[in-house]
Write a structure and sequence with these properties.
The chain is of the alpha+beta class. The protein is 35% helix and 18% strand. It binds zinc ion.
């Protein structure tokens, strides 16, 4: 969170005039159908640049200027709002929030009684007018004083009921948006209809809300954030709604059957101090990446109606509320190139090379493109302006091209005809393309992975040594390592007696690794370390794993109907390698595990971490200090738990070492039990 908002610097009157025109066009397009040529961040930067220029050159201000106007002056719609729908002023960072709060309290001449802190939803503000409890009219924000009637959308918006619990006449205000799954669904429908997709959830929601005669219907979601009694109404309810604190009004809204954010991890809270406000801002920011809907900031306001009334309004915004902006998670940038790489298992994956762009606090240069079908589906071209999304730990991804920004200079993306690694043919029968040589194509990568610390842990076998063995024709896969002789190794360059004996001893030692590590070493597609541990614990022996069919594999937690057949097919492909490992005498049993048929469920329940999902973060200390993260996770699985890498509502326990950071903050927000490494070591001491 940076404290100084970035601005576009304007050199002279010409640059200023161009900037004003660009901002006006962009706002008009945005409020028309959500297809702005600028992303939010670029638009804000531009308007701040215009503002700075106008402050320095007051004589040059153009009447068209978007500064100080609601919706940047874009006028849409002819239904007047009973009470103007104002936008909020923004703050960037803790310091600006403190400044804003201080100036508000100076105005009041006393501290603010209580603060309300809520997420700022990344959708479109809307007014929903209910008459006698029935939803009668939907109006967009428009320019703030009048909006457009979009009542045709009634019945397609989740969370906005046709009827309220009580037969009351009120106006609800809230945000219309698309959740991640609604967005996916909308893109699929549009793709099937005209071969294009939406750029992002918000423009999809904007377009959908205004669309009247589309042959397909896309679902939207509503979250209410306020309610207004009709002006002049002095009924008991109207008076009460004008006097209740904001937090209690939201309770009333929810009781009417309207969706609010109360049931989400970012539910609104009431804070007594600015410190608590700031803390809540951090908590909301920490869980942002995992929310099923977009937020672009946090709304902080006076909770009490009396404080709000005393603070009043400026010409364009309430003085008693502010939007704390979070860094952008989506921006428009250029797709410069697409690189193709063959991975360890032979999968050929495209990667987007982007014009560097700052997203959620880091610079993004590469983004995932999944596969060829994905590129075709999105109709991407080199030189396209593309929307790129990244939040938290999520791998950056290209969402869609911004088609209306095309200049005609875009070129098609070259799709490889042969494997980019070895030049052999490509098997394109599956959606994910693969080199026909499979794992053999990148033997060096799969062998290096297999002997790594978290798998077979063979010390002294660095990548250059593996390459040497491959070049000498002594090995073709990692099972061949177990058949190497002392003579063969001594023949190699740079291999003395000591290093040969050490390597042979390390290889011998590797035969005794647990099944979970041996299985992980195979590098089965779709299974990493933790999944390998779960599979090994579930089946106990390699024989059991190999005889399991797709249905039996799905009994393992985290393996669904899509992944199971891949695992089965992979095991068939890997059969010669596994046979070779068996022949070499490599251990194929998971210590302490009982196979599913004979397993007594009671025995599992007695384990200290039975059916618990455990996340480990930060630096381990005490009895766990010497263990690698993988070894700690193995310990958790032995004690009956499930090791996981990210904190979610399903997490039962967080082991937080020094410098635990955002995972700890998130666990505390979700009310998850947190233990220090020392405390945790005591709980599982029998397994250490
Ligand atoms: Zn290849």
């Amino acid at each position: 969170m940076t404290d100084a908002p970035p601005i576009t610097v304007l050199a002279d009157d010409t640059a200023y005039a161009e900037a004003v025109q660009l901002a006006v066009d962009s706002a008009a397009a945005y409020y028309a159908d959500g297809t702005s040529t600028l992303d939010d961040d670029a638009y804000d930067r531009l308007v701040r640049g215009i503002q700075a220029y106008e402050e320095a050159h007051p004589e040059a201000v153009l009447p068209l200027s978007p500064t100080g106007k609601v919706a940047g002056g874009a006028v849409v719609g002819d239904v007047p709002h009973t009470v103007p729908m104002l936008s909020l002023d923004n703050v960037f960072g803790a310091e600006q929030l403190a400044d804003w709060a201080a100036s508000l309290e100076r105005r009041l001449g006393r501290p603010v009684t209580e603060w309300s802190v809520e997420p700022k939803l990344d959708g479109l503000a809307i007014s929903a007018r209910y008459r006698h409890g029935r939803l009668a009219q939907l109006v967009t924000r428009g320019d703030g004083s009048a909006g457009e009637d979009v009542s045709h959308a009634i019945g397609t918006i989740v969370g906005l009921p046709d009827r309220l619990a009580d037969a009351v006449t009120v106006e609800l205000r809230g945000e219309v948006m698309m959740t991640a799954s609604q967005f996916e669904d909308a893109c699929a429908k549009r793709q099937a209809h005209d071969g294009t997709t939406f750029a992002n959830p918000r423009s999809a929601a904007a377009g959908t809300l205004r669309a009247q005669d589309r042959p397909y219907v896309c679902e939207l979601t509503f979250f209410g954030y306020g309610v207004l009694p009709p002006p002049g109404d002095d009924s008991e309810l109207a008076v009460r709604l004008r006097e209740l604190p904001h937090s209690e009004i939201m309770g009333w809204v929810a009781a009417q059957g309207v969706q609010t954010t109360a049931a989400t991890p970012v539910a609104g809270i009431v804070a007594e101090t600015l410190e608590r406000v700031q803390e809540r801002v951090g908590e909301i920011a920490a869980v942002r990446a995992e929310l099923p809907f977009g937020i672009d900031g946090i709304v902080i306001k006076c909770d009490l109606a009396a404080d709000q009334a005393e603070a009043g309004f400026s010409s364009r915004a309430p003085r008693w509320a502010v939007a704390y902006k979070l860094p952008a998670t989506e921006k428009i940038t250029k797709l410069i190139d697409v690189e193709w790489n063959t991975g360890r298992t032979g999968i050929i994956a495209p990667r987007a090379v982007l014009e560097p762009v700052e997203l959620d606090g880091s610079i993004v240069t590469y983004a995932t493109l999944h596969n060829v079908a994905d590129i075709t589906r999105r109709g991407l071209m080199l030189g396209d302006s593309v929307t790129v999304y990244k939040a938290g730990d999520v791998i950056p991804r290209v969402e869609a091209p911004v088609v209306h920004l095309r200049t005609g200079d875009e070129r098609p993306i070259a799709i490889p005809q042969v494997c980019p690694s070895c030049g052999d043919a490509i098997d394109s029968s599956q959606e994910r393309w693969r080199c026909v040589r499979g794992r053999a194509c990148r033997a060096i990568a799969s062998i290096t992975y297999a002997v790594g610390r978290d798998q077979l842990d063979i010390e002294g076998l660095a990548e250059n040594r593996v390459q040497q063995l491959l070049d000498a024709g002594l090995i073709v896969d990692f099972a061949d390592l177990f058949f190497l002789t002392r003579e063969q190794l001594l023949d190699l360059e740079r291999m003395g007696e000591t290093s040969t004996d050490n390597l042979l001893a390390a290889i011998e030692q590797a035969k005794t690794r647990s099944l979970s590590r041996v299985f992980c070493a195979l590098g089965v597609r779709g299974t990493g370390r933790s999944m390998s541990r779960r599979i090994a614990r579930h089946f106990a022996t390699m024989d059991n794993i190999r005889t399991a069919d797709s249905e039996a594999i799905q009994q393992v937690e985290g393996i669904g109907p899509e992944k199971a057949p891949v695992v089965v097919a992979e095991l068939i492909e890997l059969a010669p390698l596994i046979d070779k490992l068996v022949k070499a005498g490599v251990n194929m049993i998971e210590p302490g595990a009982t196979p599913p048929e004979e397993g007594a469920p009671a025995a599992v329940a007695e384990l200290p971490l039975a059916s618990m999902s455990v996340v480990v973060t930060g630096a381990m200390t005490g009895p766990l200090a010497e263990l690698s993260r993988n070894e700690v996770n193995e310990l958790i699985e032995r004690a009956g738990g499930k090791a996981s890498s990210s904190v979610s509502a399903k997490t039962s326990l967080l082991v937080a070492g020094e410098k635990a950071g955002s995972k700890r903050a998130k666990a505390e927000t979700l009310g998850i039990r947190v233990l220090s490494p020392e405390e945790f070591a005591v709980e599982i001491s029998a397994f250490l």
